[in-house]
Write a structure and sequence with these properties.
By secondary structure, the protein is of the alpha/beta class. The chain has 11 helices and 11 strands. It is elongated and about 60 Å long.
Length: about 325
């Protein structure tokens, strides 16, 4: 899966979203491990801290930059932070002690607090390629991305959901995401998978420069696939996200989760969620990653691990279970 799951340690620098926090006992401090400063998780964590600091009655929330999900999970396991933003699949593997977390062993104390929008996949086909549906990929030249990359994993999942495999393609191309748009527009490949947070500059370029268009996947086929792949959820990429896009497209995504551990008390978790839900509309406008987030999906979509008891109680009391 995605390279973000590779090891790494959380940086020692703590960047504060409001005033410098007094690292108090009890409910008064919250450190969120996030991601790289130039990425998506870091500003999303900043947005969460902003509403928590504003609404949670004296709670001091601060963001810790990191190298990604694996580093955040390591910091949570060590008790160095209170919360972390991680890929839903990474959380699932950490609890099981599988994949890149095998050596660390099962992280049985990890708990989910909030589900956040994730990275989705979109297949774009060039004009004249004769690709109107996923079935039309048979015998075509399609870029899947580098082996081991997030792009490749999402491409393979999409093919599988459509009942296809690499063997159905004329050529399974392995270009980097940054390389595929020129090749697509020059006609050297017929279609390419674009994976990430929407909108993506690379996808926008393909639509602008050569009128590439998304290839739909049947919603019924997708729903059947998702029943057996809990780390994936359905996403809709709206046509208004890209100026050159003609129709909404149903897609796959990997949600991000705000997670904590059983060391956090029910009262702490409920205070965090009260602050977030009390200022939910403002939160969704603080960063593009959070646009389109709804209260209902934030309570359940992509929850690959057990919810914290405090979160479970909060969602139950507010009719969100």
């Amino acid at each position: 899966m995605r390279r973000i799951l590779a090891g790494g340690t959380v940086m020692a620098v703590v960047l504060v979203c409001a005033q410098a926090p007094a690292w108090a006992e009890g409910n008064k401090a919250a450190l969120i491990a996030s991601g790289e400063v130039t990425g998506y998780y870091y500003p999303a964590a900043g947005a969460l801290c902003r509403v928590i600091n504003k609404e949670a009655g004296g709670v001091n929330c601060a963001v810790v930059p990191s190298s990604g999900s694996a580093a955040n999970l390591a910091s949570l396991r060590a008790g160095a932070v209170d919360l972390g933003i991680v890929q839903a699949q990474a959380a699932q593997m950490a609890v099981a002690g599988s994949g890149p977390f095998k050596d660390a062993g099962p992280f049985g104390d990890l708990r989910a607090v909030l589900s956040l929008p994730g990275e989705s996949v979109m297949l774009l086909a060039r004009q004249g390629a004769g690709i109107e549906s996923m079935a039309d990929l048979k015998g075509k030249r399609v870029n899947l991305g580098r082996p081991g990359s997030f792009q490749r994993a999402m491409a393979e999942a999409t093919l599988e959901a459509a009942g296809l495999s690499e063997g159905d393609l004329a050529i399974a191309v392995e270009l980097e995401l940054s390389e595929q748009t020129p090749e697509l527009c020059e006609g050297n490949i017929d279609a390419a998978f674009y994976s990430g947070y929407q909108p993506m500059a690379e996808a926008s370029m393909a639509m602008d420069e050569c009128d590439a268009q998304p290839v739909p996947i049947k919603a019924k086929t997708l729903e059947s696939y998702l029943k057996h792949h809990s780390w994936l959820t359905r996403a809709t990429i709206r046509k208004d996200v890209y100026p050159g896009m003609r129709d909404d497209v149903v897609s796959l995504q990997v949600r991000a989760l705000l997670v904590t551990t059983t060391r956090s008390t029910n009262a702490q978790v409920q205070d965090w969620l009260k602050a977030i839900h009390g200022n939910f509309s403002a939160l969704t406008h603080l960063h593009p990653m959070l646009r389109g987030l709804g209260k209902a999906d934030s309570a359940k979509d992509g929850m690959t691990i057990k919810q914290h008891d405090g979160a479970d109680a909060f969602y139950g009391e507010n009719g969100l279970k």
